[in-house]
Structures are given as C-alpha cells and as structure tokens.
Amino acid sequence: MLFTYFALGIFMAFVIFQSLYIFIPLFKNEKKKLNEVTKNYTFSVIVPAYNEEKVIRHCLVGFLYSKYKDAELIIVNDGSTDNTLHYLNKLLAFKVCDRKIDKELKYQYIKNTYQSLKFPNIYVIDKVNGGKADALNAGIGFSRNEIVVTLDADSYLQKHALEEMNVKFQEKDVIACGGNVLIAQAFTGDIQNLKPTFKVKGIIKFQFLQYLTAFYLHKRAQASIGAITVIAGAFGAFRRETLFNINGFRKTIGEDMDITLKLHKYIKETKSKQKVAFVPTAICYTECPSTLKDMFKQRVRWQKAFIDCLVHYRKCYFHKFSIRFSLFFLVDQFIIGTLNAFPFVITPFLILYNQSNVLLLLLLGLGAVMLFMYQSLTTIYVTHLHGIKFSKANLVRIILFLPLEIFIYRMINLSFVVYGTISYFYKSQSWDKLERSGNISWKGVKRA
C-alpha cells in the first residue's frame, strides 16, 4: 500500500512538471521581447583544456568564424599530459604574454601565459593541473572583458552565438545566461549552414532528442519562472563582476550546476531583481558520447554532481533559494529525476514478486509513455519553430525510434541515475574522462 501511494504521488508530480515543460514553451515567444542593442559588451571566452588535442581545433574554428569581433579567447591548458599545448602552438604561434592576472580567485600555479602571433585576441594559459573549476578561475583572473563565457574544448560556437548573448545582456537585471547546446554528430553540411540529421547511431539519436528536449522545452520553461537549475558547462555566459562577487567556481565534480546554485543564492541574499536567463538562439555544438561506456561515464558524473550540490546546499532550500527554484530543484530534479529512478528500475521485479498492483502500475506506465510521446512530438514542433527543420525522411526515423527511446534508452539512463546516486557516497569526486574522437563530418573543419 505504501508503495502504491508513493507511486501515485510521484506520478502526479511528474504529470504537473512535464505539463509545464510542454505548455510553457508552446506559448512562449521570445521574439515578442527583442531587446534594442544600445551597448556592445566585450566578451572573454574561457576554454579549460585537459588532454584536448583531438577536439580543440573545433573550438578555435568556431571562435574565429564568430561574427562578434569584440571578444578574446582564453584557452587554459590545465596540466595536459598529451600534446595539447604543442598542438596549440602549432596552430597559433605563441609569444610570451606579460598580462597581469587577478589573484582574487583561487587556482593552481600558472607556469606561463602566451598570446597568438596569428590571432592577437587568442591567449593560452599553461598551468599546473587543478581541475575544470580551477582552470576556469584562472581564466577569469586573466580575463579583462565585461562578460565571461565558459566553453568546453569540444564546443563549436555558432557564428551568431555571441551576438545573441549580447542582445540578452542588454537587460540590466540579467547576470548570467545559459546557451543552447546541440549534438554535433547530429548535424551535417557546411560549417556555415548545418542541417539536422537523424541518420546516426541509436545512442546518438537518444542524446540528440534528449538535448533538444532539455534545452528547447525544459530550460525555456525554467527560465520563464526564474528556476534554471543548471547553466550548461558547455556554453554559459556571466557578468565578470558577478563571478568575483560569488568567489568564482567551487572545486567540485559538477562546477556548472554549482555555479548556477551560487547565482540563485546570491540573488536571494542580495534581495535583488537580478535573474539567470536562457538564450535559445545562442547556439553551440558539442560532441556527445558515441558509445554506451562513455555515456555511462558522463551520466554517472552528472548524477554525482547533482547529489553533491543537493547535499552541499541542503541548508539553502526555501531560505537562501527562492521558493520557485527550491520547488523545481527538489521536486523536479530530486524526487522525479532521482528518487523516481529507483522504483522504475525495480518495478518489473516487484510485479513478479507481488501482482496485486499490476493494473495500477501498468496504467501509470501507460500514462507516462503517452506523456513522453507527446513531449517528444512537442520538442520536434518547437525546434522547427526555432529553425531546426527535419526532412520528412528524418521525421519518419524519429517517430520509429520513439518506442526504442522510451522503453530501452530511458531505462538504461535511469539505471545510470541509480548507479550514480549510490556511487556518490563512496566515490563522490571521481571523474572518468570521456574519449572524444573529434571526427565531426562538417565541411570547413579540417585537421591541421
């Protein structure tokens, strides 16, 4: 009986939040509030790099193709043990740079700083390994511009991405923005005119749909009510002064979620009307795991990061966080996103052991499946409105893939959530680096 009430309670919460994620994006129209550009902010794009020789070129190419010119790129070589630094020197042609570094934030010893002879607005910091948060803090200290953008080494900025961020920062109360992250392997064509494709491996199809849903539905809905739970580490933008006000990035396995929670805490404590925004038109492309093993590593790390933040900020809910944010973080992210994974995984075994609630569980399962299907179709419709238009052949592939996505890949992902939650309590900070190939089949990106 207790399990029945628990299942019903979670299902009702699930329906409420998933409905919000479906209907708010359907009726939200960012074009109604286009900001007049009265100021062109200066941008410092910071890229932490640890053993990124295979992918760092994508990041460089994206920055150089950017239409926004008042920006600098700062690559932080965080003690790489491969040829990342040598490869960067080959591409950029270094000279030693004597720019002073702000030491207010904490980071490991910096060996040297360099400036490119080919591209004077590109810099490289060579430092002792300290982790991603440490590298970001070093980059912030080295930066000089008003807006700091954090970018993963395998992320390729779409040419208008910084322009779109600049438009959003015209709103004086915006202190940080999340960018829109898309799966690079699911796009083909010329680097200046990429088109989506669903003719990829099943594991990439799953992640492609998941990213589209997370960014075009979930983050747009969360932004509408002031409850963004994470600014993706692959692409985020922050007012530099705010990063110093909150003491930069904390050394943790999930620095992107942690910095987002820091911002919400800062907003609440300062009793300001500042906000964290999301910019769906500011796009970057990132390489997702192409094997189940690498996806397992990534998802387990994400889950550990969530549990770490859940525990670290345990005294802040409804007190140092707003009520709306606290509800979304605890109910949607924790109860639905984490606790719900456990009964989902063990339900088949419970049915075998006790068949008294089989009908109820089947009805709840059917309701969840129908909602998942509707959500996926809504995702395709909303992304179409935002310029990601699939061919008829690809739409057929998506529809045929949905049952596999719901019954197989989602269940696999839930098992990763369960494992990540449990493993946090005995290996909380372990981080297995993903193997990325850098083999993106776009015209215009060639290996040097």
Description:
The protein is of the alpha/beta class. Helices cover 49% and strands 17% of the residues. It is built from 13 helices and 13 strands.
Please give a handful of descriptors for the protein shown.
alpha/beta; ten-stranded mixed β-sheet; about 450 residues; single chain; 13 strands
Span from first to last CA? 64 Å
- Run of helices and strands: HEHEHEEEHEEHEEEHEHHEHHHHHE
The largest β sheet comes out as:
10 strands, mixed
Which percent band covers the strand fraction?
15-25%
The percentage helix is: 40-55%
Q: Give the low-pLDDT segments.
A: none
**Tally of helical segments:** 13
Give the class from helix and strand content and strand pairing.
alpha/beta
- The count of strands amounts to 13
Average pLDDT metric: 90
Rg calculated over all Cα atoms: 22 Å
Lateral arrangement of strands in the main beta sheet: 3-4-5-2-1-6-11-8-12-7
Overall 3D form: globular
Strand-helix topology:
Blueprint: H1 2-27, E1 43-49, H2 56-65, E2 71-78, H3 84-92, E3 94-96, E4 110-116, E5 122-127, H4 132-142, E6 147-151, E7 156-157, H5 161-168, E8 174-183, E9 187-190, E10 193-196, H6 202-224, E11 235-239, H7 240-245, H8 255-269, E12 275-286, H9 292-312, H10 323-339, H11 341-353, H12 358-385, H13 392-424, E13 442-443
Parallel strand pairs: 1-2, 1-6, 2-5, 8-12, 9-13
Antiparallel strand pairs: 3-4, 4-5, 6-11, 7-12, 8-11, 9-10
